[in-house]
Every structure is written in structure tokens, then in C-alpha cells.
Amino acid sequence: MDKPAFRTDDERWAAVQARLREADGLFYYSVRTTGVYCQPSCPSRGARRANVAFHATRAEAESAGFRPCLRCKPDQPPLAERQAAVVAQACRLIDAALEEPDLETLAQACGMSRFHFHRVFKAHTGITPKVYAAARRAERLKQGLAQAPSVTAAAYDAGFNSSGRFYAASPGVLGMTPGRYRAGGGGERIHFAVAACSLGALLVASTGKGICSILLGDDPDALVRDLQDRFPKAELVGAEAGFEATVAQVVAFVEAPRIGLDLPLDLRGTAFQQRVWQALRAIPAGRTVGYAELAGQLGMPQGARAVAGACAANPVAIAVPCHRVVRNDGSISGYRWGVERKRALLERELENN
Fold first, then answer.
1. Which of 65, 168, 262, 315 is the most exposed place for a label (fewest CB within 10 A)?
2. Which helix (H) or strand (E) holds 179?
3. Model confidence band, residue 180 (pLDDT cutoffs 50, 70, 90)
4. CA-CA distance, 307 to 139, in Å (whole number)?
5. Measured in whole angstroms, how far is the alpha carbon of residue 261 from the centre of its chain?
6. How far apart are CA 211 and CA 20, in angstroms?
7. pLDDT tens for each residue of 56-103
8. CB atoms within 10 A of CB 57
9. First-to-last CA distance in the chain?
10. String of b and e for 133-168 (b: at least 16 CB within 10 Å)?
11. CA-based radius of gyration for the chain
12. Contact at 8 Å (CB) between 51 and 30?
């Protein structure tokens, strides 16, 4: 939809009174009594109409002798862009630090109060600075365990300043013991089976904690290779009779979503991905939400793209129903296992609703 043109002063004045953000950049207004010019959405105290003039560009306002407002900063990029730059700066600081910076240090470096910085960071990333720092430390730990000469060296390189803290945190970070992770998941036993369903081939895999993968596709061999790539050194156990009942439950759930799937899950992902997956599981069958709507529910109005990325990383199709997230206009968009499967799942849920 095209933006309003705001061709007349009456239209511009109405936009200023409404602090209409959609008008920002389309025109500027100056206030004779203060000597400043502003964006239409400026939160400053309202001026009297008799003291206001309108300008098509910043240059026009400045040539008339007005200076930029210190609150709405009309001479700088839009607020969302400025906040995104601040968040990126904070992420770089966290990434480069040997030890996790505290909130006060990060806020001061970004020129914000602790409260405002925390709120802006979470709005743009969906997680707090502390959770982001923990996730980055986990990534460094995983890289270090593959490259460092010892588990201890990897722990200290990742920023753990004591072995006690490291071993207490590692199961939640790695999903297994550090030694087992260093061995590439060696020793972990994963049961799996491939079955046919109305959507094609279906692979179900489970650890001792619960289902870790539900994959859909056309080629059963390709699904098995996908599982092997994810757990390269785990012991994959197929075609066990006792596991067939679990697979049958998943197939039944594909065909009739309303019956639900009462099986434990072993979901492994970042803290942010876990938040998104938990929110997805709360969407009832037959309902859809937009990426932006879901991001808003998670308290991150700028995070639609990040939510889409978490949906794409979902390892358990259907059980974590990322197929229930659609474009903001309601149309069906990309799906890791194919748009046609996504459409079929949604149609089936609506029919059974």
C-alpha cells in the first residue's frame, strides 16, 4: 500500500498532531519559538499551529535557520536503524570479550541506560544480552572441543573461569557430557525408523530423552543421511520392533492432527530457538499466526526475520508446528520440508477443526 502523500499543510498538521510515524521522511516541520525542526512523529511537547512551518527536506529546514531536534534526531537514520546499529555494536563487544561484559558496561558503551539498553536489545534479538552471551560462549565451547588439545583448554578458551562452573553448565549447553561431545556424539544411541505417510517419506528418531528428529521428504535415504549428518558419531539403531509403536503414533498424528502427539521431545537448539519452538507448540491445530505477530508475542517487534530463521531450524516437523506460521498477509511461505506439504498440513487441520 502506498504511503499518504501529505500534499497539503492541513494533512501535514494532522500527521504531526497524531505523531504519525508513517509520515517520517516525507516532510519535516519547524517550530519558530524553539528554532528546531522535527520528524512528524517527534514525541516532544506539541507546538502551536501558528508557530509551525513545513519543509520538504532537511536541507530546506536548515537553510531556513532551524537546527535538528535533539529528541527525534531528524538528521539521523530512523530510530529502528539506530537501535539495530546499537544492538550490533553490543553483540560485537560480547563476541570480542574474553569474559562476559556486565549489563552496565554494555549499556554505557552504547550510550544508553541499563533499562533502555536491555529493552532495545531484547526487542531486536528476542533474547537478553546475558542469554546472547551464553549462546556465544556455547558456540565457542563447541568449536573449542573440536579443536583444543583438551577439554579443560576448551573450557577456559570459551570463557569459563572455573572447571566447576564449566561441568555444571555443559549438559545444558551441549546436550551431553563434554567428553562425549568432543567425540562427536560418540556413544549416544539413537533409534530411528522410516515410514510412509500421505506426505511422503517420514523419518522419526529418538534419544533416551525423547524424539530428536522428525523429517519429511521424498527420498528415505536422503532423510537417513540428514540424520547421520546431524549425529555423525552417534550409534544409529534402526528397525527395532519396539520403536515401531512410536513411529505409528507420529504417522497417526500426521493424518489426524487433532489427536495430538503425547511423546517427549529432545529439542536441541539455542536459547532463542527454544523460545520460538515453545511458542509454536502453543498454537492450536487449525490456527495460524504471522511471523511478525509471533515475534510480537515473544516481545521482539523487530524480530520477524529471526523468528523465521528459528522456524527453518526446527528439527521435529509437525511436533513443533512451524507450518502454522504464515506470511503477515496470510499467504503460505517457505517450509523446510516443502511448501506443498505445509499447505496440505494446514488444509488437513482446517478440515478436522
1. 262
2. helix 178-182
3. low
4. 20
5. 25
6. 49
7. 999 999 999 999 999 888 988 777 777 888 888 888 888 777 677 889
8. 11
9. 33
10. bbbbbbebbbebbeebeebeebbbbbbbeeeeebee
11. 26
12. no
Specify the pTM: 0.55
Phi, psi of 85 (to 5 degrees): -65, -40
Residue 234 phi, psi dihedral angles, 5° rounding: -75, 160
- C-alpha cell of residue 274: 527454544
253 and 223 in contact (C-beta within 8 Å)? no
- Residues 284 and 321: their CA atoms lie apart, in Å, by 9
Nearest-angstrom CA–CA distance, 349 and 283: 12
CB burial string 241-258: b at 16+ within 10 A, e below: eebeebbebbbebbeebe
Q: Give phi and psi for 38, each to the nearest 5.
A: -135, 165
Are 192 and 204 within 8 A, CB to CB?
Answer: yes
Please say if the pLDDT value at position 253 is more than 60. Answer: yes
Catalytic annotation, pick one of 69, 72, 110, 322 = 322
Torsion sign, CA atoms 231, 211, 320, 125: negative
- What number of CA atoms fall less than 13 Å from residue 14's CA on the CB side? 8
CA angle 77, 33, 19 (to 5 degrees): 45
**Count of residues for the chain?**
353
**Residue 128: how many CB atoms within 10 A of its CB?**
15
Class of residue 232 by CB neighbours under 10 A (exposed 0-12, middle 13-18, buried 19+): exposed
Q: Which of 349, 348, 282, 352 is nearest to 320 (CA)?
A: 282
Mark whether 322 is an active-site residue. Answer: yes
Q: Which of 38, 91, 110, 212 is catalytic?
A: 38
Confirm whether 38 is a catalytic residue: yes
Provide the grid cell at 277.
Answer: 519452538
Amino acid present at 329: D
**Dist. CA 225–CA 105, nearest whole Å:** 46
Tell me the pairing of strands 36-38 and 28-31.
antiparallel
Tell me what pLDDT residue 64 has. Answer: 94
Q: Which DSSP category does 4 fall into?
A: P
Amino acid code (one letter) for 351: E
Which residues are registered as beta bridge partners of 98?
none
Q: How far apart are CA 335 and CA 34, in angstroms?
A: 54
